[in-house]
Amino acid sequence: MRLLDVQALDLRLDQLAHRRRTIPEIAESERLRVERKQLESDMITAETQVTDLTREQRKAEADVEQVRSRRTRDEQRLQAGQVGSPKELESLSHEIESLTRRQSDLEDVELDVMERLETAAARHDELRGQYTALEERLAEVDRSRDAAFAGIDAESDQIRRERADTAAGVTDTLLTLYEKLRAQFGGVGAAALHQRRCEGCRMELDASYLTKIASTPDDTVLRCEECGRILVRTLEPGV
Length: 239
What we know:
This protein has about 240 residues and is mainly α. It has two domains: about 20-165, Helix Hairpins, CATH 1.10.287; about 170-235, no CATH class. The protein is built from five helices and four strands, in the order ααααββαββ. It has a four-stranded mixed β-sheet with strand order 2-1-4-3.
């Protein structure tokens, strides 16, 4: 019966190991990390766009200022009466008109760049906010995961100690066979013989084999004729 106790403890350890591998926080943490990586990429793209548009805005401002300064100088010359001939006066007037149109066009460009920069900066700020919130959520999930790990590990350690104490009452030869069969049969190397049925494979044993079992000494290692697992006799009469 001690071997069945070992088997029960091993199954409990297997269940805890499975639970440790599949706690929801693991999948959630992985999902958030993928999302964070995508956000980081999006932030780099947004930051690059802000940098490029900032440079473009400075150029647009410089272009406008250059045309504005030239136009101001021409207007000052005109107002100061520094133009002598009618032909030069006409030429200067045409140039001022041309500069006025050019300044207007450049100011439109400047305004467009400013609007695009404002949109890009808002997008970058939005992504930073999302990133901050995601980092906080990820930290929370990881703390919950680690707490779950700690609880499972503490329970597993306790069961391992109990298992070691229990296995000390099983012979080395039987324990070695049990471990080998356990690896073969999905974690179940020993099963109870209950109501003429192997609890490992759930098959009912042949009557002649049951008779043979009944006549063997109590310390004989029995094997299920169907699945090969170690059979442990219970207190049921006749087996």
